[in-house]
């Protein structure tokens, strides 16, 4: 994506191509993670004594990673959303000054806490090699987790670009739906079932292609490193619903505060939206 050229970024065909490319990153990061055990110790708060830190081993590593990457401007990029937005550092590099592509509140649309929870509770058990801990590998496991989480986060928050593109393509329709706070209507408007079905079909093919030893492809029982059906299920039940949640959350604020009475009561709005979207999540 060329974020210095807003028109190309908001072209829905380009956005979809970028999402297809991100599937590769997600699938390969799952394959890397699949070498290791489930490793509950990596996710348990304060399991390890870490100087000046309270939280899980994974959170500590994720935070160090984000702090370092913030120094090279990772989170200035509009397609990167941090897990620890309040603890980033100022880069010594000059600011990139991207032209505004998304609305000014875009950074506040952040579902990373939810991504991390669902990753630990639902995704890891499906892709890990075995249950239990493997002490010598907690570092490698947590590194693989950081890659998975960052790949998932980037993919899910790309929903902001999808939403902006769809809004600009059908401004009258969305303005109406947003004014009426018609969350269900917005969800229907942004949904493209054919695109979703194609994604799931392609993920099964990618799971087979990337996860199998190619020289064994024609043998009786080629073993895929991560079950392709599990990858498709994770997309269907987690990744796509969360992307759509980002789209809806972004669109609800798109007309600005004057038009949004619920801005007075953001908690109610979140509750309502979680209820509406919860059916599609695990
Ligand atoms: C991302 C899009 O918006 C929606 C979400 C999708 C997804 O998360 O993969 C796919 C299709 C749409 O229902 C899109 O239209 O491409």
Automatic annotation (TrEMBL):
The lineage of its organism: Eukaryota, Fungi, Dikarya, Ascomycota, Saccharomycotina. Catalyzes the Claisen rearrangement of chorismate to prephenate. Acts at the first branch point in the aromatic amino acid pathway where it steers biosynthesis towards phenylalanine and tyrosine, and away from tryptophan. GO terms for cellular component: cytoplasm. Its main location: cytoplasm. PANTHER family: CHORISMATE MUTASE. One of its GO terms (biological process) is L-phenylalanine biosynthetic process. SUPFAM superfamilies: Chorismate mutase II (SSF48600). One of its GO terms (molecular function) is chorismate mutase activity. NCBIfam families: CM_pl-yst. InterPro entries: Chorismate_II_sf (IPR036263), Chorismate_mutase_AroQ_euk (IPR008238), CM_AroQ_sf_eucaryotic (IPR037039), CM_II_prokaryot (IPR002701). Pathway: Metabolic intermediate biosynthesis; prephenate biosynthesis; prephenate from chorismate: step 1/1. Keywords: Allosteric enzyme, Amino-acid biosynthesis, Aromatic amino acid biosynthesis, Cytoplasm, Isomerase, Phenylalanine biosynthesis, Tyrosine biosynthesis. It comes from the Eukaryota. This is Chorismate mutase.
